[in-house]
Amino acid sequence: MKKQSMGFISEIENKEEIKINYLKFVIPEDLVNYGFEREFVGRFPVIAVFEPLTEDELYEILSNPNDPVVINKKRDFKVYEIDLAFTDDALREIAKMAYKENTGARALARILERILIPFERTLPSFSLNFLGVTKEIVEDPYKVLLAMSESPYNPKWKENYYKALEDEKRRVKNYLSRREKLLSEDKLEITPKRLELIFKLYKERDIELNKALEEVLSLWRQIKSYEMAFERKNFLKIIFTEDAVDNILEAVIKKNWGVFTYCENIMSKLEYSLSYLKEIRNKEVIYINSLAFRDPEKFIEEYLLI
Whole-angstrom Cα distance, residue 130 to residue 89? Predict the structure, then answer.
């Protein structure tokens, strides 16, 4: 594994050699020669060599909305009713620090603790219920904490928080766009309203984004099940338009109602009119839009004009 070079190209070869991870070429016999018992080495069917995480990869870990390191820290602050949000610049700076430590992803949690523990101990005594973690905080947490303690009502802190919220929402949107192919199997479209609802669940409950997405997806499936149940019961096919689905999702999440209970409550006001449309106007499929929820009578009037 060691090489000696002569002549003017020796320096170049040595520089190239540094980039080679020789562990990739290790075979079981090398481990035995190193000192491991042959019987012990024989128990491993595969020898895996891990590459050091890059700065970009460490950032990807932190910026993933399902990352437990960030979510757990948010939960710590939520105990004190303080909402925590991170700007992209802050996460990149943390990733940069972790990369320099060269201890892998474990450094991320350690650095987050080091930066935020002073705020976790001090902010509950202020009247602030939010903290936008910026690059400035990451670089010098005690300096920023001192400034906040001297001027807790400075509008700068709220501006930082809103900037961090916008960055978080953008990261959530990017993550969902990468999952769009999986969601297409259920034919679930992520409308602006659904993105808002998913983000709201994600922030208010401090849960993994996948859990927030799964909850909305589960409610959406229940809405589709209700459409089929209504058809079996009334021999009339209804289809909720996308804006109507948004309306249902928002209502059941906000009021903590069941989908079937909420839909039955709305559709009971339309049952007679829908039967009329079916028998007199020969409507085999009726599309229910959001107007039906806001003003059932006007919805029927407009449908009669079609």
Answer: 18
Residue 78: is its pLDDT beyond 50?
yes
pLDDT in tens, 87-106: 999 999 999 999 999 898 99
Q: Which residues pair with 238 in a beta bridge?
A: 286
Q: What angle is formed at CA 182 by the lines to CA 263 and CA 184, rounded to 5 degrees?
A: 55
CA distance 179 to 173: 10
Of 44, 35, 133, 41, the C-alpha closest to 83 is 133
Contacts of 177 (CB under 8 A, 6+ apart): 190
Alpha helices in 42-154 (DSSP H): 55-63, 68-78, 88-101, 106-122, 135-139, 141-150
Domains in the chain (CATH in brackets) are: 1-51 (no CATH), 53-161 (1.10.8.60), 212-304 (1.10.8)
